[in-house]
Design goal:
By secondary structure, this protein is an all-alpha fold. Helices cover 79% and strands 0% of the residues. It has eight helices and no strands. The chain is elongated, with a radius of gyration of 58 Å. The termini are far apart. The N terminus is likely disordered.
Length: 263
Amino acid sequence: MNTLAKVSLNALNHHEKSRLALLLNVCIPKRNFEISTREEKLPEVQEDESIQERELEIERIRDKSRLKPQHRNMLFNKLPYSQPMTESHLTIKYNRKMYGRYGSESGVNPGIMWPTKTDVVLRKEYEKVAYPFTIQELVIQAKTEIEQKELDNQKIHERVIANLSKLESWKKDLKEKIAKQEAVALAAKEKKDKLIEEVRRHFGFTVDPRDEKFKEMLAAKEKEQKKKDKQARLDERERKAIAKLMAKNEALLSSSNSADRNS
């Protein structure tokens, strides 16, 4: 302690000296205690950091998935990147997506969720082109479509009922058609059997149908039969035409006779 401090202490009275001693006894140990506490806390902080580092290292060794850090973060519903890695990570669209998925943990300002004035104008222009009709017009269109659909269903129902009433006649027509086809097929078979029998009678003995001469004779007979059938059709057509003309002439004669009688 220097001379000035000694003189100052000697100048104090007994009461002031007592107060000074009390202050020194209270403040100085407290300050020493704070310093010692800080010194004690420093090793604890270092120890916590080493524990955290050791836990991270253990977790890294335990990870056998071979996933990249960003993919592993996504697997555990964490933010993929702690900082932007590409230009796309700086876009509003990407940041909105990150905030919508991870919330405040993404570190994105929620203000970017709201569109700008330019976005609002562009959205209005898009809606005018993409959705030109008002809600009232859309309601009217929907009602018209529903009514038209009900009308079409009613028509289909009526057509089904009408067809069901014709079902029996259709079945009858189908059976007649099948019977006619079977009759035609049977007649053709009988005709061919008849030709085969004629060819066998021509040779005078049983001939193998696979024999070349038999095949030639059968082809000739079939050709001859086709000519006969064609001639028969022509004759039938001519007969019908003649009958039609005669009926027409008789109608003309009867009409002329009626006219003469009336006159």
